[in-house]
């Protein structure tokens, strides 16, 4: 090592987005290697609104590998963290740290512990794929620290997959496919980018956060039960998904919103049908989720063609795609009409993320909500319930870029001298 003794600390920081599957992954053929029973396709969410930021430091002075998640130390004993770290360490290379001048040789890395601090800019473990952003970010940032170069395309995604299946898709931006692969060692179960986020840049994504609470059945446990007990899941994986993957790839390639919307809604509904087909049944959707589905379905039918698509992961939150900004404004108006905020809440705290949709809708404060017209498809129909506070909040976002490096000196979460979380020093 270039510097004498235990004095040096090298640090890297990265950011990785969350992603939302439009053709769902549900079920593993190998629990240890996290190999899925079908391929899946996702849209990467704008990291400005839904991402994990992770700082990793290494120093011979560190006594053990440690992890702080959202400011609190958590154990790194879990097999998923261990697997990711082991695979990354095994690929470490000789590297020179420009900031400190330290040279670390390949063989030295095995004896150097790491400190990791990570923060999510959205709720953790609430069905918004924090594990996807978190593990993608961990692997991506460790690759910067250890100087790992992929020996085949998608190698890092295969390692992120060991942390959480859906994490393999979060390394890339835009539209991403996780190929289920065939190999027993999982080498070909990797993510590839179908198209950059700029390829289809008029899509707007609006997330209705129904609950930020931790869910009863984790995705990992839920899909195990479904594989064990749901005949529908096996039919889906073998007969339905392969065809849908091809159709979705084509819809993305040609920016065909109608086809994209039909496939997205159908696949979300079939995924939740497999949950209901599981014994005992798993319920991720609740009454609010169903009201959101009703809102979109009623509007799409009235319009004669899909304006908005919805999809739900393992939780009640709706992720909705509007075909463009104009439709996004109409969607936000409908959401605010049917799901107004509690009276004392600022509108800007209720609708967060990309504020441009709120601006285009000319909605500045709660008073402006009175001006929203009754949606055309509801005129003359039985008015749905309007319960203020039924939704927690709304996030406006877009498809976004994949993982990227940040300047550790400016936005790092660990002190570059001590390697301890910065907030512990304040
Ligand atoms: N930034 C992060 N860095 C490292 N690990 C993380 C990070 N964020 C989340 N995790 C891990 O992921 C776990 C949460 O995963 P879980 O699957 O329960 O929720 P989720 O990913 O938010 O929901 P879902 O996968 O159903 O969309 C956390 O307990 C933690 O172990
Ligand atoms: C419903 C889903 O979000 C399931 C995601 O499951 P996870 O990737 O969280 O599961 P593990 O691989 O066990 O960590 C659908 C999807 O993202 O494709």
UniProtKB/TrEMBL annotation:
Residue ranges of the TM segments: none
SUPFAM superfamilies assigned: GHMP Kinase, C-terminal domain, Ribosomal protein S5 domain 2-like
EC number(s) recorded for this UniProt protein: 4.1.1.33
Enzyme class, broadest EC rank: lyase
Residue span, Mvd1 C-terminal domain: 205-403
Domain Diphosphomevalonate decarboxylase-like N-terminal, chain residue ranges per copy: 16-191
Catalytic activity: (R)-5-diphosphomevalonate + ATP = isopentenyl diphosphate + ADP + phosphate + CO2
NCBIfam families: mevDPdecarb (TIGR01240)
Job description of the protein: Performs the first committed step in the biosynthesis of isoprene-containing compounds such as sterols and terpenoids.
Family listed: Belongs to the diphosphomevalonate decarboxylase family.
Name of the protein this chain belongs to: Diphosphomevalonate decarboxylase
Species this chain originates from: Sphagnum jensenii
Highest classification ranks of the organism: Eukaryota, Viridiplantae, Streptophyta, Embryophyta, Bryophyta
């Amino acid at each position: 090592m270039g510097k004498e003794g235990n004095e040096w600390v090298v640090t890297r920081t990265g950011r990785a987005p969350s992603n939302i599957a439009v053709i769902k992954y549900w079920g593993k053929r190998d629990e240890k290697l996290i190999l899925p029973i079908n391929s899946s396709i996702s849209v990467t969410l704008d990291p400005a609104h839904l991402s994990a930021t992770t700082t990793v430091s290494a120093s011979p002075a560190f006594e053990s590998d440690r992890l702080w998640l959202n400011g609190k130390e958590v154990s790194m004993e879990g097999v998923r963290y261990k697997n990711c770290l082991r695979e990354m360490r095994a690929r470490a290379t000789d590297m020179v740290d420009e900031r400190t001048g330290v040279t670390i040789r390949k063989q030295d890395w095995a004896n150097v512990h790491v400190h990791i601090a990570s923060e999510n800019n959205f709720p953790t473990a609430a069905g918004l794929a924090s594990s996807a952003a978190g593990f993608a970010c961990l692997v991506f940032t460790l690759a910067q620290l250890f100087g790992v170069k992929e020996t085949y395309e998608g190698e890092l995604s295969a390692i992120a997959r060991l942390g959480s299946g859906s994490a393999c898709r979060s390394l890339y931006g835009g539209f991403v496919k996780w190929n289920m692969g065939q190999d027993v060692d999982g080498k070909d179960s990797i993510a590839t980018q179908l198209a950059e986020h700029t390829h289809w840049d008029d899509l707007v994504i609006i997330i209705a956060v129904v609950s930020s609470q931790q869910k009863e059945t984790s995705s990992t446990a839920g899909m195990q039960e479904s594989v064990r007990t749901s005949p529908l899941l096996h039919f889906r994986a073998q007969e339905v998904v392969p065809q849908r993957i091809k159709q979705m790839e084509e819809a993305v390639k040609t920016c065909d919103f109608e086809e994209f919307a039909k496939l997205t809604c159908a696949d979300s509904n079939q995924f939740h049908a497999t949950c209901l087909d599981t014994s005992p049944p798993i319920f991720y959707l609740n009454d609010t989720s169903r009201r959101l589905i009703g809102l979109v379905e009623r509007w799409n039918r009235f319009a004669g063609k899909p304006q908005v698509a919805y999809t739900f992961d393992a939780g009640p939150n709706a992720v909705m795609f509007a075909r463009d900004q104009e439709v996004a404004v109409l969607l936000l108006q409908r959401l605010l009409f049917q799901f107004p905020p509690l009276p004392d809440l600022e509108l800007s705290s209720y609708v967060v993320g990309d504020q441009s949709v709120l601006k285009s809708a000319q909605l500045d404060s709660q008073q402006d909500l009175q001006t929203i017209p009754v949606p055309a498809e509801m005129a003359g129909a039985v008015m749905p319930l309007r319960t203020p506070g039924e939704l927690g909040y709304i996030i406006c976002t877009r498809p976004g870029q994949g993982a990227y490096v940040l300047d550790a000196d400016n936005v790092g979460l660990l002190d570059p001298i001590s390697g301890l979380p910065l907030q512990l020093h304040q």
